[in-house]
Structures are given as C-alpha cells and as structure tokens.
Amino acid sequence: MARYLAERLLHSALILLVMSFIVYGLIGLMPGDPADLMISANPRMTSEDAARLRALYGLDQPIIERYGRWLRSALAGDLGYSRLHALPVINVLLPALANTAVLMGMSFALSIALALPAGFAAAARPYSRLDYTLNFIAFAGISVPSFWLALILIMIFAVALGWLPAGGMTIAGGFGDQVRHMILPVLSLTLASAGSQIRYARAAMIDTLRQDHIRTARAKGLSERRVVIAHALRNAMIPMITIIGLDFGYLFSGALVTETLFAYPGMGKLIFDSIMGNDFNLALVALLFATIVTLTGNVLADIGYVLLDPRISFRESEP
Description:
Layout: H1 2-28, H2 34-41, H3 47-57, H4 63-75, E1 81-82, E2 87-88, H5 89-124, H6 129-143, H7 146-160, H8 175-209, H9 212-219, H10 224-262, H11 267-276, H12 280-308
Antiparallel strand pairs: 1-2
Helix pairs in contact: 1-12, 2-3, 5-6, 5-8, 5-10, 6-8, 7-8, 7-10, 8-10, 9-10, 10-11, 10-12, 11-12
C-alpha cells in the first residue's frame, strides 16, 4: 500500500505541476497586469517609471521565465503577496480554506446521508410510488442550476419569509449568527449534489440485487432486509465510491458560485474576488488548491475500494 500511495502522490504532483503551468499561463494572458493597475492609479507616472516597474516585477520577461521563477519560490515556501489584501498569500488563504472546509464538510456529509438511504430505498422497491417520488426529486436536483437554486432559496427564506440572512457572514458575528448564515449555502450545495447521488445509488443497488449471489441469499430464505443490508449494501457501495470521490471535487467548484452569491468568506468567493481584482498570485494559488482537493478525493476513493472489496488489492499480481 505504501508503494501505491507513493506512486499516486507522484502522479498527483506531476498533474499539479502541469496544472500550475496551465493556470499560470492563462492568468498571464489576461488583460491588465499589476504594472498596468499602478499606472492607471497614478496619472503622473511616466513611461520610464512603467518600464522600471515591469522590470522590477519581472513582467518584461517571457512567461516561461516568469513561471520558472514563481515555481522556484513556491517550492521554497514563498507563495507571494496578495495585491488586494497586502498580505502574504498563505495568510489570506488559510482562513478562507477553513471556512470552505466547514461548508464543504457539512454539505458533503448531508448529501451522502440523504442520498444513499434514499437511492437504496428506491432500488429496494423499484417502480413503486416511493421510487417515482424519489426519482422526481433526484431529476429536479440534477436539472436545477446551482446559481438558480441559490437565488430561489434567497428569495424564499431571506426576502419573502425573512427567516434567514441572505449572506454576508462575518467572523465577529458569534457562533449562532454564523450558523444562521450557513444554513442557506449548505442547503444549496446539498440539494445540488444529492440529486445525482440518489440516481447513482439507485442504479448501483438495482444492479447488485440482480447478481447471482443475491438470488442465492434469497433462495436460502433470508429476509429482504437482511439480503439488502448484509449482502447487497457493501457491493453497491463500490461504484458509489467513485461518484462520492468526484463529488468531493465538484462541491469545491460548486462552492465558487454558491459562496459568491451568499457572500460567504470561503475559497470560492476568494477566487472570484482575486480574478476580478487582478490579484494574480492569490488567484493562482487558490485555483491550485482546488486541484489538490480534486486529486485528494480521487486518492481517497481508491483507498475506499480496497476497504469495501477484499478482492481489490494495492499489491501487484504475482507472476
């Protein structure tokens, strides 16, 4: 297992390296750089001053050389400074990352807790009223865009009913105030991801219930409850691990839209604000953190395969 994890970490590092170059290149091609912003902020700045600024920040160098210099600094632990916040990038990222981890963790746990029992219950009674109802709910969750769902929740619970705040959570508001501000973002992310998970859980359980070992268990006279829980549940969870691992990364990307709409101080809103404010260092590192989250979800999914299915092993097959 140690060798497998080392190989996966190496592959993840290579993917992260390629993604860093792609993201750095795309950000470098965006119109407007720090020197342009300084020039526009000071109308008395001359062209000679602008040239000195570009040379000082290395903006007059080819993008390959600029990327190499940034990569060497990043590997040494220096991620640069945020132009918008006038702080080291890591000092800006850590509080936002903690807020997003809380939001993602709650949404992820709630979506799984709702989707898996609902999908398995629908599969245990196919084409019943319960199955049709859960399928309708799942299709509605899949079809509704996350930004539209967030706006509807704001209109209903914040504008029309006035029960919950529309957004703008602050750290100084206290625990109770933070919980009230988190209800709508958590609900939005949970509903957006639970629909697809219900469909996948239903399909996985139906496929498992058609296997020969399930027919054998039923032929032995076992109750349907025991057949589902003792024999089918573990096998049905194996394909679900892939979906859950992918959804782990999806929640982070979905949080970008949700956090922006609810003004939640997390990584999603931080990425949006940094891109709109041409804070290149902050946007680059934040986007790479999103890549790390997706890669981590894939590695955890592979480990989950082994824990659920003893036939799967990290060891290489013997010749």
